[in-house]
Amino acid sequence: MFTAIAFKEWLKIRWTFLAMVLVCAGITVNVALDISHLMTLEKATSVWSYVILMQYPFYSSFRYLPLLVGVAVAVAQFVPEVLQARLKLALHLPLRENRVLLWMVTYGGGMVLALLLLTLLAAVGVTIRSFPSAVVRSMVWTMAPWFVAGIISYFLTATIVVESRWLRRVFLILLAYGFLDTLVLHVAIEAYRPSLLWFVLLGLLTTTGILVSGHRFRKGVR
Amino acid sequence: MEYAVECRDLTHYYGKRLIFENMNFNVRRGSIFGLLGKNGTGKTTTINILNGFLTPTGGQCLVFGEDSRALTPATKARMGFLIEGHVQYAFMTIRQIEKFYSAFFPRWNKAPYYELMAKLEVTESQKLSTMSCGQRSQVALGLILAQDPDLMVLDDYSMGLDAGYRRLFIDYLQEYARAEGKTIFITSHIIQDLDGLIDDCVIIDYRSVLVTMPIRQFQSEFKRFTFTSSVADLKLPKDDVVKNTECIKHHATLYSFKPRQDVEAYLRGRNIGFEGLKEVPMSLEDAFIGITGKY
Fold first, then answer.
1. pTM for the full model?
2. Which residue, among A14, A92, A217, would best test binding to B if mutated, counting the most B CBs under 10 Å from its CB?
């Protein structure tokens, strides 16, 4: 049954997801070309010192990418469900309603996570050829909050889209904006390293947010 | 258990607006039950309560003995549900949607679905979003038939359908339901289509239940009388005898469950002169308009 749900979710998100794959690949290639360009024009030691001493974030174009991926996939997945109250079809399937909703976000969240991890790996791949591992580690720690924000943005967007009351939606949007903005606010090197675990734990709470808005949808709260 | 659905003292408000109060009805197993009412009287509200998509303000609805507020997966597997407007997954193709649903229902039988699809000018790889409203209605019906449910809940199946598709829908539904002994709970705003289809009915009006009875009993007991009244634009209050009146100048129409002699006695008792009082036969639609009024 999960396969059937996954099939349905894939049909909804496939074009958006493929577009996001292209955007992620494009930005990764762009960063790789930037590094290559710098290395060609300058000596490697100059570039290294610029990156290490001046803390030049050559990967800053990744900053809003995970947010874009999370929001776009959630919108593509859940807007068709709330149009014409189509979510009733899924909730009428012979399964526990919470299970259906969790399967839906597990699939969507899994796809977002997979794409972001691949992007992060690709970023590491293109960086590690030109920089020492300390720089790459620093880059990963600096970008990690952006990628965590991407995953959280998926779950929060799903919760907001399924929510049936506009006033509550606006409140959730403000809450999401405040939370996510904190994670992507600065391009400060490794700034979130000490607190990232807490953000991850806080973010885990958002994975079940859809159960609340889904419950309200099912009970007919309008 | 004799009943597939039991609604007891069902009451619902949207905010402070009362939709209906203390609605009671039972749907016998193997019967076709019509929930009839004008637009905005609470038909879809009732269906939403029945499917667990709305918590009633008061009372309860039992589906196969289970409270509709907490239907188990096993009970949901026995219920086919047609959402108003034949809403389905428009991003799927005919083949994809059949494959999708087949994973969930243990009694899934794709034969009636594809039999119905063969009647449409569509291909299996065609997306639902590219189909006409009539074609989508047949897809939705075909999926319910393939599910092989014991109870079908159909919310305004006729919405957006032309006469041909409405007839096709009803013919298929009737044939299937009668042959397989299925229970159907149906609403429609086109009452004439339900004539000859439904066994029992409940007729609701704004905030109240007007009639709950077998349809044959309703059609035989509910009567329309016409006469020339001595009083122009006659308007009578609704009571035990008079269920509704219409009057254009002196040409009066009176609807009642009482026999002719009771109506005559009623008019005489109120000193209303009348001439040429006669009972006029009605279709189901006439009777529905008679009891609910034109406005």
1. 0.86
2. A92
